[in-house]
Amino acid sequence: MLRRALQHRSFLLGVILVGLMVAAALISLAWTPYAPERMRVGPPFAGPSWAHWLGTDSFGRDTFSRIIVGAQNSIMVGVVAVGIGLVIGVPLGVAAAAYRGWWDEVLGRMVDLTFAFPAILTAVMITALMGPGAVNSILAIGIFNVAVFARVSRGAALQVYGREFPRAALALGRGRSDIAIRHILPNIASALIVQATIQFAIAILAEAALSYLGFGTQPPHPSWGKMLLDAQSMMWIDWTQAIYPGVAIALAVLGLNLLGDGLRDLLDPRLRVFRVG
């Protein structure tokens, strides 16, 4: 596995990009050049310099400090939102595959209803009703992830239930819950891991969009989406302030997508032979 991983260029690039995002978030927990919320640490719209590596924004706040602290927010949103989807969606999907009947039918209709609305629209509706803020935006994204993981886990579990060993375990008198824990979940774990990386990237994009619209993380806490909004009105003065958060979002999402692509190739036994790169 390690040898194949080292030969997979897309996987390695994804690991590097995601590692940089995680490293930035960890570093910002212990150190930042300036307090990210503090105004007038430098002149407004100062260009890159030794004092301010990425310059300052319209309030004189250090852009580099806000970028690396914003990584904390993106990772927190992704982890919690994906965690909600895994903890609630996977048991629902596996139970639907195990018991079928009315349980499967009800879950299917609920998932279809969730997918009838785009993720961002659903999140905007929920945050508009419950109020803006990081917690409500995470909850909104997590609710959509529940439907995603329920559908993915159900489909993967049905494929496993079609094999001989779950039928043999059922014939031996094992309960459906026991079969699901012992046999189904280990065999669908790889599909869930890959889906988790994809949903992590979607959560970062959704949070940035919500913050850009004013429904996500609220000032003064830094958020890449809010930084884009602040920079938009000042594009005619300093357009570079919109570049930095935009590049941060793009690299984070690209890294997670490449990581998910690589994990799919490495974990799926049907893809033992793959194109390196």
Report on the architecture of this protein:
The protein has one domain (2-26, 61-271): MetI-like fold. The chain is elongated, with a radius of gyration of 22 Å. The chain is built from ten helices and no strands. The two termini are 16 Å apart. It has helices at 2-7, 9-30, 63-99, 101-115, 119-130, 134-161, 164-171, 176-213, 224-232, 240-267. The protein has 277 residues and is mostly helical.
Give structural attributes.
disordered C terminus, elongated, 277 residues, 73% helix, 10 helices, mainly alpha
User: For the residues shown, what is the average pLDDT?
Assistant: 88
What is the count of distinct domains? 1
From the N-terminal CA to the C-terminal CA, the straight-line distance is: 16 Å
Counted by DSSP, the helix tally is 10
> What's the CATH architecture?
Orthogonal Bundle
Given as residue ranges, the uncertain stretches (5+ residues, pLDDT < 50) are 273-277
Which CATH class? Mainly Alpha
Order of helices and strands: HHHHHHHHHH
Overall morphology:
elongated
Structural class: mainly alpha
The percentage helix is over 70%
Instruction: Report the strand count.
Output: 0
What is the CATH H-level superfamily? Answer: MetI-like
Q: Let me know the largest β-sheet.
A: none
User: What's the oligomerization state?
Assistant: single chain
